[in-house]
Amino acid sequence: MAKYQKLLEPLKIGNVELKNRFIMLPMTIEKVDNYHVTDDLVDFYEQRAKGGVGLIEIGSCYVCDCFGTEPKYHTTTGACGCWDDEFIPGFKRIADVCHPHGAKVAAQLQLCYEWRASGDDPLLSYAPSADVPSGPFVGMPEREYTKEEIAQVVKQYGEAARRCKDAGIDIIEIHAGIGYMVMRFLSKYSNHRTDEYGGSPENRARLLTEIIDEIHKTCGDDMPILVRISADDLMPDGNRIEDTLELIPIIEAHGVDAWSIQAGFHEAPRPVANQIVPEGEFIGLAKQCKTVTSKPVFPGTRINTLDMCDKVVNEGYGDAVGMARQFIADPATAGKVAAGHPEQVRPCIVCSRCLDNIFIGKPCQCSVNANVWQGVEVGLPEDHPATEQQHVVVVGAGPGGMEAARVAALRGHKVTVVDHSDRVGGLLNMAQVLNANIEPLVSYWQGEAGLHDNIKVVLKQDVDVDYLKSLNPDQVILSPGGGIIPIDVPGIDGKNVVKSEDIKAMCNGVVPEGKGMLWKAAVAAIKAQGGTVGFMRMGLNMATGPTAIVGKRVVVVGGGFAGLEVAEAMCDNREITVIDPAKKMGNGIGIIDKNPTINLLKKKGVKLMPSTELIEVTKKGAKVKNVETGEEQLLECDTVLTSVGVEANTTLYDEVVKVWPHAKLIGDATTPAGKVYRTLEAVKGGYEASMAI
């Protein structure tokens, strides 16, 4: 069997047949208008249906009235309302655009941490037991459910399911995971009740089984029911896999057709979805769940590559595979596999920028797919062909420039991309050495340019106004990269100082200016190895010996996104200290990744020194000062490594705009003071620039 082919085999959930085993997991995309489905949300799901996904799950279909409220848990505001018949047309719109492409649709019925019986009551935080804190932003529960209120919750789920069925939804999912309301009843951590809804497994499952029974009453036994559950909730004294294996048969006896397996609570001390979590970390939970059920089971936590999907279905970890972020990154993931071109899949880099927004109630965004943010307002390039072909010159082959080129080419323009480096990718070429999750994105861009006959890439070419004139462009888009934030202290140009721009140059096959034979030898070795990322990664991790560029004791100057990434990538077998004048580390890291990243660094022995600035580099190391107390000290080290990020860079633009007044500047070159721009901002800038032509 050819690689990935089992992922294309059909699968039945109840009486509903999926055309393949790709399942788009539910996420709260935050594309609603006062809980109503919008054109943007319909378009979002239609793209994934066109892209070949077998089952699309609509995230967070809220079962209780939230009109006119201000939920403490921000994600609730992005839910699709399901508590009134007025929402049926919106769900029908989603079903009607997905079905013609062969995709089935599930609606995920949801209660997070807040509830009310009707629109006349206040929205309050509820829980099975009032003595356990609720999830993020909510604090201690304001109410503990009475049995009468539980009965009302059950009725709300049943009516919500009926509305979904009336709208043409194929499958009902009950969210019983990640610490939301149903899971809080299931978990021994959060359920301390002593009545028939607490204590034994049967009692803790009672809310869920009553919901299932009610859905069968309102929708009939032929409506497939899917349960999404945290097989290990990762909470102290909570449910372990052994508890879940006991719960599944109890719940399934009431009529469950498939199981979606995840892990954790949102507030769990152990992260589950970040880059720092190894891919496939929790697929074994699904495999264990398969031992107690004959129904389809699929894992759906921290999976983003086709190779991992293939492992899941071929090695018995699951009957299908659930992903959300990968289908955000590339709606056509499944379709590209079916067409025999998996190498063309645009990869999710697990940066969590989508979750950063969703978690605080803002519309979904994506670092590699700007259309997720722009939606129907800007549209897709293939739907907006140019009325007149123009010659678009893009300066810079980083992610912003390459995205600008891709979009312009799809719209029918002739594109020339020019870069001074010997390869496409820009800063991503350095980033992939530090972070393996970036490597597939560089490969994607290397291949993408070759798919468009109207894109010409010119490398190893410096650019000025005269050169641009020789190309005779109609439009110019500049993505030259940010300027280096200067560090002006004594000794900063010493031999024991390695600057981020030095590493960038080396990764691009260039000997950094002012560096001697050691660097020349390193660059020559990289070129001899074909510029392989693995070889470069090995070289940077070499802390001792005559060819070591970065020594064993390192002071990293810069505690923002870039500095912490460098520290994490190089900390094995090294003693690393990170300094930053800010009171808190992690500027540029979002809410999802910041604390886990800092905690990981501490666990790995990295010393973090906020409120500390570099005042001098000596032969012995870095002389620093506490910005609050004025206290100075010498941090003895072998290497001072600067990684303070970049700033705005308008040098070339200021000259170019005199000749081409409509020239556009994008990417790191537009970074505001004090901010950190990453791949997301670059790609968004490139997308917008070419869509505006």
Write the layout of secondary structure elements.
Blueprint: E1 11-13, E2 16-18, E3 22-24, E4 32-33, E5 36-37, H1 39-50, E6 55-62, E7 80-81, H2 88-98, E8 104-110, E9 114-115, E10 124-127, E11 143-144, H3 147-166, E12 171-176, H4 181-186, H5 201-204, H6 206-219, E13 225-232, H7 241-252, E14 258-263, H8 283-289, E15 297-299, H9 306-314, E16 321-323, H10 325-329, H11 333-338, H12 353-358, H13 371-378, E17 391-395, H14 399-410, E18 414-418, H15 428-434, H16 439-448, E19 455-458, H17 465-471, E20 475-478, E21 483-484, E22 497-499, H18 500-507, H19 517-528, H20 533-540, E23 553-557, H21 561-570, E24 575-579, H22 594-603, E25 607-609, E26 612-618, E27 621-626, E28 632-636, E29 639-642, E30 646-647, H23 651-659, E31 664-665, H24 679-691
Parallel strand pairs: 3-6, 3-16, 6-7, 6-8, 8-12, 10-11, 12-13, 13-14, 14-15, 17-18, 17-20, 18-19, 20-31, 22-29, 23-24, 23-29, 24-25
Antiparallel strand pairs: 1-2, 4-5, 9-10, 21-30, 26-27, 27-28
Domain NADH:flavin oxidoreductase/NADH oxidase N-terminal: 6-343
Keywords: Flavoprotein, FMN, Iron, Iron-sulfur, Metal-binding, Oxidoreductase
Family: In the N-terminal section; belongs to the NADH:flavin oxidoreductase/NADH oxidase family.
